[in-house]
Amino acid sequence: QSIASADEQGGTLRARRQTVRTRIVEARNACSTSNELVQKIERDLAVSEERITGLQRQRGEQQQEERRLRERLIALQQQIIDQEEQCDLVDEAVDTGAAALAAQEAQVARAQKDYEMEERRLRAAQNDLVQVQARLGASQTDLGRQQKHLGERNRTLAARRDTIGQSQQALRSLETRLVEERFRLETARNEEQQVVQRKQVLGRAIAEAQQEIERLKATLAEAERQRRTVSDRLAMLKNWRQSLSGYTDGVRALLRAPAGKVSGLVGPVPQLGVAPSGLEAALEAALGPYLQAVVVETLADAYTSLHYLQAARSGKAMVMWLEEEAKQAVVDEAQCQAEEETLHSYLAGKPALQERVVGFAWRHVQCDSTYLQLFGKMLRGVVIVKDVDAARELLAWLTLLKSSSSAHMPFEKVVTLAGEVLHGTGWLTAGSGKDANQQGLLAYERELRELPLQLNEHVALIDQLNSRISEVQRSQEGRRAEQAAVEKEQQKIGSRVNELNKVLMASQREQERIQTELQLATSVEQQLAAEVVGLEQEVQAAQERVHAHEKSQRELAGLAWELQQEMEERASAYRRQQDELGHARTALAVKRQEARSLHQHLATQQAQAQDLKAQVEQLAARMKEAEQRMHTLQEATTHQREELAKAQAVALQLTGALHIVEEQAGEVDRQISTLEQQTMQLRQTLTGLEGVYRRCLLDSQKARDAVESLLEQLREEMGVADPKDL
Questions:
Q1: Selection from 639, 659, 572, 616 nearest residue 167 by Cα
Q2: Separation between Cα atoms, residue 597 and residue 115, nearest integer Å
Q3: Which domain range does residue 554 map to?
Q4: Considering the entire predicted model, what is its pTM?
Q5: Which one, of 287, 238, 281, lies nearest residue 436 by Cα?
Q6: Are 31 and 654 in contact (CB under 8 A)?
Q7: Are 161 and 527 in contact (CB under 8 A)?
Q8: How do residues 521-580 score in pLDDT, each as one tens digit?
Q9: 596 near 120, Cβ under 8 Å?
Q10: Which of 199, 204, 503, 518 has its CA 20 to 30 A from that of 583?
Q11: Does 645 map to a domain?
Q12: Is residue 454 part of a domain?
């Protein structure tokens, strides 16, 4: 009856175990579904953050492009203003030239009228002279002809001499004017050379400033890259600290304990002190198991942590408390002083070894004064050296010191910078694993303290570079404005040089013409002088016969000569005015052509300015669209983070429920095993027969197979090799 009741109770427990297994499978499926949802949300969140980063980088590039287009637009607008001023100046010059040309044309018309009037007077005087000569008679025809010929020659000779004198005077005045014009031209060219030199200096300064801007921009990009690197590294380390990676399960359980479960929690040992750069591996090896210790305030807090770990069954952890540290401070300080003096006295006799000994480990930990005694206790008797050979020498001296004296030893073990530990009792720890290049907890904690300072330094450097770039750009704009003014001045000087060249060329042509006329007049004057001498000899004999008619002839000849002289003067003045009128028309046509070209160039620049404005507006529209997309992505990212937090909370609840169901399954399995043992004892007691014994053996074998299958199922489903692990 007891066996039947035990079998009935075993069946009930087996049914209960089957129910619990069904609940375990359902809980595992729910956990896997929640984990998949969490992973999907995390992937979507990472993609959204990456797209936001790309949009921010694209916005920075678009802002730089907009700034560059606006600078080009400002420079082009300045050029348009300068071009408009030049067009106004050229239009004024064209109007002035047109007014001067109209005045010259009126003056030429008046000179032409005067010339025609004087020509009529000359013709009338010549007609009178012809009539007087006709009345002289046939007897005076020959003398009259000779005298006429002589008078004409004399008049021509006098006219030539007057022309020669006037040409010489005009040549001297023209030479003086040429000297002055050459001096003015040389002065203008010197001014133009100075302006060109100033322009070259400004061009070099602008090029150097542009190179400086490019260098500063490259430095700024490098600083931005370093800042992003430091920021990413800091975020990674913060995630590392938040996830408590590198700590044991027990330490993570204590640090993540709910409020009220654990009291007086200070923190893990790696977070209470900072290891200097290069000593992280040595101090981690020196701390040993203390590296995974959790510090609390009092011994009661340590017992509370112990009870929480036992109740939660989340692993083991070392717990240290601070309340006894103040009592041992005076004794520890004196003892540490004695240990340091002993070690220094030994190293004073060995300078080579002293250079390879770093010192006591607790001296190289940077921490708050509250935790000095704690680190002193954890690192008591540990000396840091640079290599294994130095450690071996110190251990050899420690062995001799132990054999010769029974006093307290200055240290117990030696740690190298590579993390190798040599203990005075005769053991050492060395070697490295597959992840030997990975940093330790102390190195991560030191980086967590140093990276914010480095990030602030990078931000300050970026601000300084931005201000420097702005300053250089402002000075660049000033140089460009000065360069535009210099170019404008150069154009003015160039136009003045061209005008002086034209005037100089016209004066040189006038000089050559006058010299040619002077040479021709000199040769004609010599010929006329020779002819006059011959005619005077021929007329000498006939002068007495025609003395009565000479007076009237001389009067008419004088009048004709004066009229001829006046006609020649007016003709020369008319030709000169015609030449000046032609030069003025040519200059006016050139100025009008320049005005048309300047207006065309101005229209082209205005069209370019309109195109640049359109590009700036398009770029602003694209930037606005990119900002809208970025805001949309940020809102989606915020929503995904909220969903991620909810999914993680659900996964945590399902994991807790799974642990509870697995504990119930373990309890059912223990009850089943107990019940099977009781059944086996009852069956052994009821009968001693062989058949019953064999049946008991068969039942026992079946129970063992069931347990093994259950263990195998637990191993496959939960990864548990030993039931005690549950």
A1: 572
A2: 41
A3: 27-140+550-659
A4: 0.38
A5: 281
A6: yes
A7: no
A8: 788 778 878 877 777 777 676 666 666 666 776 677 777 777 778 777 777 777 787 788
A9: no
A10: 518
A11: yes
A12: no
